[in-house]
Design brief:
The complex is a heterodimer of chains A (347) and B (415). By secondary structure, chain A is mainly alpha-helical. Chain A has helices at residues 3-11, 13-31, 41-51, 65-99, 111-126, 131-151, 159-183, 188-199, 207-226, 228-234, 238-243, 248-270, 276-288, 292-316, 322-340, and strands at 152-153, 156-157. Chain A is built from 15 helices and two strands. In chain A, a hairpin with a 2-residue loop joins strand 1 and strand 2. The chains are: A mainly alpha (347), B alpha/beta (415).
Chain lengths: 347, 415
């Protein structure tokens, strides 16, 4: 990006956030037009507006399959995409802030492996669509709590121990998942479901999922945002942060728990969608800089926009798990950043 | 009025006791130096004074208030710290980092206002960092970053400033500048300062009280002349050192006892006229090649002197930051007269060390082999009035048949 453009964005962060929000709305409407059936942009817009509360009665109600596709199939999926994308991005921002490391991701404390294990158990015993998210959520959060317990030494959370505990639990949970897969019947359907969970998919999203996850996303993002100042100070080192007035232990616990809760909730509904939580904070930092008050809302909007675009692609090229698209699009971007910044440390 | 009281403080890491029964007081406006060998508990004490570590026993009190009953924000408004080193992974600007010093005064969603920015600008101004306030902290040198962190600490507007070897990464010019700034704030604004020093001479020069720690215990505590004595230094550091009084302002300085050179060996002697880190690896190379090396005149705390001390070279020394006195000048001339080879490195020449060139002019004889480093560019490093450095260079060159090299590295080829 050109330096002068970046400077003007940094000087007017509010206008930039407004622009991003507008872009998100456009992307949402556009995404509802693509898929196995193409629906014109205008018609989608009218359908959405007629469904909206308060202003809906001023627009003609559109009946027919297009309405069913948009309202019942695409909108909940797109909305869940926005919720998951922004939650993972903010979770990643918080993790990278607490770990002071640009390589931290929402899954660093074992959320993905734990969730995967829970999902595998859910699929193995229940085979019910309702049970799976609950199993995944409980296992993901349980894993994180176990990692916390292991990482706590004498009343303090030691970052290095925590990372190692996360790594160990990742291995343990992946091992258990593989064991369950080994025990499972050889039906293709069964393995496809586990696979879909591991790659992460938005296919089959329903309104209820979006409605349950929305408040969790809002509360989570607000909690992370409330600690923007502390996250900035954290980058000076934990000891210096303390000496600048930050209640370091409390901040660490609240941030790690909130970001894990966000990630666990999203994993429960969509499986493990990779790269969003790792990449979006980077992209946002490149544009608005490392200051968390700007970084957190920008990451959230980037995450939402990025995941909806990826899902539109996933839907168009034959319903593949969106996690495959995020990784395939995200890795080249990561490599680009790496090459661009080679020799110069930091982003 | 007592500002800080430390009473029988005991603390440590895990099960290991680091500080054992430390008691001292710091009054408003004191400049306390904490010295001691590696591992004597200096940094631990700084941590205990900011509640990074809690006391196992005893107490730390600010204005009679126990630190355990103070919130971190309350402490941060009164006490700020410049740590040994800082590593920042993300590209914050210098201004961002300095403004973080205002955070104890700001609410969770509050942004710094004009007054906060003014405080930050002032701090950047004193620390000489204002001119790169827009730069990313990731693109600063170690010394620049350290000054930014100092600006942040001043922006906290503390009553007491804690420095944990904060100047160890600075070059000699900035070291003096920063310490002088702090001393001024100490004198004029009554800012209390506690600073951990590896360098005894910095402590001696600036502090009005010194605490000497040894293996976590208070070995000595009091005025510099009470603490910096030959017997204390021998007991704690195990070295023989001389404690001198600075000729100008009467402050103390410590220098290791001169090592006598063994002239019986019959090897060639080389005298190096240098300063300000201009020797590079020259001294080491000369010693390794078996020359008897001497050097001078070097100020205490000059990095060339540190190298010379390390190599056990006889050096004519001068008090820190002061001009060459007649006594040292005379000693320097003597050494130059005795030397078979005299090397003049490309050090910057100012009013303070112009006598080094006069000594060369006076001391070299017909038999001396004289090597001048980077003779052509003397004009650029001559900061004396009326270009006396350039003139002396000319006179030296005229009288003698000499060798000239572009850099110290080339000397290897000549010898």
């Amino acid at each position: 990006m050109k330096d002068n453009m970046r400077n003007s964005i940094r000087k007017k962060p509010k206008s930039f956030l407004f622009f991003l929000s507008f872009l998100l709305l456009i992307v949402i409407v556009y995404s509802a037009t693509v898929g196995p059936v193409d629906i014109p942009f205008r018609r989608v817009l009218v359908i959405i507006l007629s469904e909206a509360p308060l202003i809906g009665r001023w627009f003609p109600t559109f009946e027919g399959t297009d309405r069913t596709i948009v309202v019942n199939l695409r909108l909940p999926r797109i909305l869940l995409g926005v919720i998951v994308g922004s939650s993972l991005a903010v979770s990643g921002t918080s993790m990278q802030g607490i770990f002071k490391n640009p390589l931290a991701s929402p899954f660093i404390l074992g959320v993905s492996a734990g969730g995967g294990m829970g999902a595998a158990v859910g699929i193995y015993i229940g085979r019910s669509y309702y049970l799976l998210p609950l199993f995944a959520f409980v296992a993901a959060l349980g894993t994180v709590i176990l990692v916390f317990a292991l990482g706590r030494v004498r009343g303090k959370t030691d970052i290095a121990t925590l990372l190692l505990a996360g790594l160990a639990m990742n291995f343990l949970m992946s091992g258990l998942t593989n064991y369950i897969r080994y025990l499972s019947p050889p039906e293709k359907e069964f393995h496809l479901r586990i696979l879909a969970f591991m790659f992460g998919t938005l296919n089959g999203s329903i309104w209820r999922e979006a409605i349950i996850s929305l408040p969790i996303m809002l509360i989570g993002i607000c909690l992370v945002f409330a600690y923007s100042k502390d996250l900035n100070l954290f980058q000076m080192g934990e000891e210096s942060a303390m000496q600048l007035g930050v209640e370091v232990e409390r901040t660490k616990m609240i941030q790690l728990f909130t970001s894990s809760l966000l990630a666990a909730t999203m994993v429960a509904f969509t499986g493990v969608i990779g790269f969003v939580g790792l990449m979006m904070p980077h992209a946002a930092r490149l544009v608005v800089g490392p200051e968390h008050k700007k970084l957190i809302p920008t990451s959230a909007l980037f995450g939402g926009i990025f995941l909806v675009i990826c899902d539109s692609i996933a839907r168009t090229i034959g319903e593949i798990p969106v996690g495959i698209v995020t990784v395939l699009l995200g890795s080249p971007f990561f490599i680009y950043l790496l090459v661009r910044n080679r020799g110069e440390t930091g982003w | 009025m007592v500002e800080l009281e430390v009473d029988s403080l005991v603390t440590g890491y895990n099960d290991k006791e680091i500080l054992k029964n430390i008691t001292f007081e710091v009054d408003k406006g004191d400049f306390l130096g904490i010295i001691g060998p590696n591992g004597s508990g200096k940094s631990t004490l700084i941590r205990a004074l900011t509640k990074v570590m809690s006391p196992w026993n005893g107490s730390v009190k600010y204005d009679k208030k126990d630190i355990e009953n103070m919130s971190r924000n309350e402490i941060a408004k009164n006490v700020s710290v410049v740590p040994q080193d800082t590593f920042i992974n993300f590209p914050f600007t210098v201004r961002d980092v300095v403004l973080m010093g205002r955070s104890p005064y700001l609410g969770r969603f509050e942004n710094p206002d004009k007054k906060d920015i003014k405080v930050a600008k002032e701090a950047m101004d004193v620390t000489n960092t204002l001119r790169f306030e827009d730069r990313s902290v990731r693109k600063l040198s170690g010394g620049e970053l350290q000054r930014v962190v100092l600006a942040r600490a001043l922006t906290q507007r503390p009553e007491l400033l804690l420095l944990d070897e904060a100047t160890s990464q600075l070059d000699i010019g900035h070291k003096k500048e920063v310490m002088d700034t702090l001393k001024e704030k100490n004198d004029k604004e009554n800012l209390g300062i506690i600073s951990v020093h590896h360098n005894l001479n910095l402590a001696a020069r600036y502090c009005n009280k010194i605490l000497l720690l040894d293996e976590g215990e208070k070995h000595a505590y009091g005025k510099p002349e009470e603490v910096l004595t030959n017997s204390h230094l021998r007991a704690v550091y195990g070295v023989e050192a001389e404690v001198h009084e600075h000729p100008k302002d009467g402050s103390l300085y410590v220098s290791p006892v001169d090592k006598k050179i063994d002239t019986e060996k019959g090897e060639k002697t080389v005298h190096v006229v240098c300063g300000g880190g201009s020797t590079g690896k020259l001294l080491k190379n000369l010693v390794e090649k078996g020359y008897q090396v001497t050097a001078g005149v070097l100020n205490v705390m000059d990095s060339d002197l540190e190298k010379a001390d390390f190599l056990d070279i006889e050096v004519v020394t001068e008090a820190p930051f002061s001009s060459i006195t007649y006594d040292s000048h005379k000693k320097n001339v003597e050494l130059i007269k005795k030397a078979d080879i005299v090397i003049v490195t490309d050090f910057p020449v100012g009013e303070g060390n112009i006598r080094n060139l006069e000594a060369v002019k006076k001391g070299v004889t017909r038999e001396t082999e004289l090597i001048l480093v980077d003779r052509e560019n003397i004009g650029e490093r001559d900061f004396t009035e009326e270009n006396r450095g350039v003139k002396l260079y000319k006179e030296i060159s005229r009288e003698k048949d000499l060798k000239s090299v572009d850099s110290t590295v080339e000397i290897k080829r000549l010898l």
